From TrEMBL:
It holds the Pfam family BacA. This is Undecaprenyl-diphosphatase. It is a multi-pass membrane protein. InterPro entries: UppP. Its EC number is 3.6.1.27. Belongs to the UppP family. Bacitracin is thought to be involved in the inhibition of peptidoglycan synthesis by sequestering undecaprenyl diphosphate, thereby reducing the pool of lipid carrier available. Catalyzes the dephosphorylation of undecaprenyl diphosphate (UPP). Confers resistance to bacitracin. Keywords: Antibiotic resistance, Cell membrane, Cell shape, Cell wall biogenesis/degradation, Hydrolase, Kinase, Membrane, Peptidoglycan synthesis, Transferase, Transmembrane, Transmembrane helix.
Length: 274
């Protein structure tokens, strides 16, 4: 892998990790276009590294909320406790536990699904699911949680259960399943997105950390420069993408992302897979 490829993949990861279009799907499809086998050990290690760059970006964006969850206020000394907001670590645990359990016990099965055709079907299915969730949230359900601090334990758990879909089906999109799951459970679009981004930090750290146990031998003097370039690019791009998404969230609906997913799947099916 050269630096240009590392930068391209870092950009793709940063652009897609936290919006509902499936970063995994985009990485698989991009690797195919570039002529790389994304299932090789070196590529999987690189993908873990750039994913960690995206995680760092979201952690910085939500730094104040993370400190509040831990019982500390950003504006006060770390020696003084600050009042907790209503959202607490139990919500986070309920939001990540179902997916982590499934990922742990079905790891080998999930890895067997990482190929382009599976991703294309997941892009379409996930898009349909997102359109339905948006319609249902608007017409059939009473929104009871308009911001993070109104989120109930039941809603956090339901979001965690919906997240299982993205774990078992590469290309479905973790953020797409969690945001949609929140909206189907009576959570507002913005609060669902906030919670989706927040629980991404522990679940992605756990998944990446677990994979690094097998991948650390590939950090060598020959690869470290390329890995670092991808990490930095992914971090910078993801940081600005999340800020832009949260700023424009009332203008960019799930349906818009769903249409993009349909177009992407169709283009790859017509021009790349045939």
């Amino acid at each position: 892998m050269d630096f240009i490829t590392a930068i391209i993949l870092g950009i793709v990861e940063g652009l897609t990790e936290f919006i509902p279009v499936s970063s995994t799907g985009h990485m698989i499809l991009t690797a195919k276009v570039l002529g790389y086998d994304d299932q090789t050990a070196i590529m999987k290690t690189f993908e873990i590294v750039i994913q960690l760059g995206a995680i760092l970006a979201i952690a910085i964006v939500y730094w104040n909320r993370i400190l509040n969850l831990l019982g500390w206020s950003r504006s006060e000394s770390l020696n003084k406790k600050a009042p907790r907001k209503k959202l607490n670590l139990i919500h986070v645990f309920l939001g990540i536990a179902p997916a982590l359990l499934v990922a742990f016990f079905a790891r080998d099965f999930i890895k067997s699904l990482f190929h382009a055709q599976t991703v294309l079907f997941a892009l379409v299915a996930g898009g349909i699911f997102m359109i339905f969730a948006e319609w249902y949230n608007k017409n059939k359900v009473q929104v009871t949680s308009h911001d993070l601090d109104e989120l109930t334990y039941k809603q956090a758990l339901l979001i965690g259960v919906y997240q299982i879909i993205s774990v078992l089906w590469p290309g479905f999109s973790r953020s797409g399943s969690t945001i949609s799951g929140g909206m189907l459970s009576g959570v507002s679009y913005k609060a669902s997105a906030d919670f989706s981004f927040l629980i991404a930090i522990p679940i992605m750290c756990a998944a990446s950390g677990y994979e690094l146990l097998d991948s650390y031998p590939y950090f060598t003097s020959d690869t470290i420069g390329v890995f670092l370039a991808g990490f930095i690019v992914s971090f910078v791009v993801a940081y600005f993408v999340v800020l832009a998404f949260m700023k424009l969230i009332q203008k960019i609906r799930l349906t818009h992302f769903a249409i993009y997913r349909f177009v992407l799947a169709a283009v790859f099916w017509l021009f790349i897979m045939h």
